[in-house]
Amino acid sequence: MDERWLFTGVVWGAHEIAFFVTWAAFGLLYRLGIGKRFQVAAGKAPPAELSRRAAIEVVGGHVLLLAVAAYVLFPAWAWMGGRSDQPWPSVVEVVWQLAAFILLQDTIFYWSHRVLHWPRLFRAIHVKHHTFRHVRGHASEYSHPVETVANLVAFMVPAILLKAHLLTFGIWVLVRVYETVEAHSGYAFTRLASRHAFHHLYAAKGCLGSFFGVWDRIMGTDRQWREWRREQTHR
User: Fold this and answer.
1) Max CA-CA distance within the chain?
2) Domain tally for the chain?
3) Angle at which helices 145-161 and 91-116 pack, to 10 degrees?
4) Beta-carbon contacts of residue 30 (< 8 Å; ≥ 6 apart)
5) Cα 95–Cα 101–Cα 105 angle in degrees, nearest 5
6) Which of these, 54, 82, 102, 143, could form a disulfide with 77 (CB 3.0-4.6 Å)?
7) Distance in angstroms (rounded) separating the CA atoms of residues 119 and 204
């Protein structure tokens, strides 16, 4: 198989699997009434019309991502020295690279996200994502094109810069997409999801990072979330 299409199949395919499986799994939990004490804002859902419109736009974006993977991400990855052939990476290599990806992604995401909360940029760009005050999984990828590009840079640049083997790249896509859909699920089984649900409920009160919230802790932008969390059933 041509390496371009192997790369595209792995990266795009991992994205689709992680996104739709995670979105559907949390949707099923709502339908079955499971884990109600972990539902943020008593499980309140976003407006049905907003959800419908967002879902259509997000799925359309997945079609565009196919072309981006083939004609933007693959050339950048190949130029940096990424590989898909043998030998496959060791477990140690996969683990340390995933840890590095998380730290790099959170750094880029935190600071670009913080910039998007400047009043002018928030009103011009980021407000679209925050039309979801009460979140569901598909809200994770509902954003202005400028924000979508910024998020894609934070997502993909770490794996490209570190010349990740295609296997590691695919695992990273699974991990990152699961993380962001879970963070927008409306459930707070993890501290990550609790932080991001709080961020959507109270956009001006912090929690700007992803994964482990390293930069939020360093910069003190999770203080109000900590106070809020003490009053929640999901704590």
Assistant:
1) 54
2) 1
3) 150
4) 39, 43, 45, 186
5) 155
6) 82
7) 10
